[in-house]
């Protein structure tokens, strides 16, 4: 598990997952065990689900946001400081919105569905820049 910010950024290895994913809001009592569910989060207003776009369409679920899913394959520590800010800033500078979920092993970034490839390019450039900085600071 990594905590050092420069090392995390230089090692993040963004990976675009295949397909389109959607964010949707369901009633609290909705059954969420089913194909296509990636994540859930219970809010006061309802149950937010992130799921495969095709599964949502088949179930008649109206998407709030259609997304491409990028996984940072580096095993980041949940106590690491600054990684989310760094990649969110880089994506923001490129005009790409992002929604982030941290899981036990990796960070997952959801960007507008049509921006997935460009977002990966931005993240890889951030990674290259951090790698150069890290290499130049070594004696």
TrEMBL record:
<dbReference type="InterPro" id="IPR027795">
    <property type="entry name" value="CASTOR_ACT_dom"/>
</dbReference>
<dbReference type="Pfam" id="PF13840">
    <property type="entry name" value="ACT_7"/>
</dbReference>
<protein>
    <submittedName>
        <fullName>Acetyltransferase</fullName>
    </submittedName>
</protein>
<dbReference type="InterPro" id="IPR018717">
    <property type="entry name" value="DUF2241"/>
</dbReference>
<feature type="domain" description="DUF2241">
    <location>
        <begin position="3"/>
        <end position="65"/>
    </location>
</feature>
<dbReference type="InterPro" id="IPR045865">
    <property type="entry name" value="ACT-like_dom_sf"/>
</dbReference>
<feature type="domain" description="CASTOR ACT">
    <location>
        <begin position="68"/>
        <end position="125"/>
    </location>
</feature>
<dbReference type="Pfam" id="PF10000">
    <property type="entry name" value="ACT_3"/>
</dbReference>
């Amino acid at each position: 598990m990594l905590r050092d910010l420069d090392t995390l950024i230089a090692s993040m290895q963004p990976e675009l997952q295949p397909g389109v994913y959607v964010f949707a809001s369901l009633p609290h009592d909705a059954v969420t065990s089913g194909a296509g569910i990636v994540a859930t989060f219970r809010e006061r207003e309802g149950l937010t689900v992130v799921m495969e776009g095709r599964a949502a369409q088949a179930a008649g679920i109206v998407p709030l946001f259609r997304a491409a899913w990028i996984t940072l394959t580096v095993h980041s520590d949940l106590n690491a400081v600054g990684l989310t800010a760094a990649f969110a800033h880089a994506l923001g500078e490129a005009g790409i919105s992002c929604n982030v979920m941290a899981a036990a092993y990796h960070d997952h970034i959801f960007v507008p569905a049509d921006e997935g490839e460009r977002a990966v390019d931005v993240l890889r450039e951030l990674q290259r820049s951090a790698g150069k900085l890290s290499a130049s600071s070594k004696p």
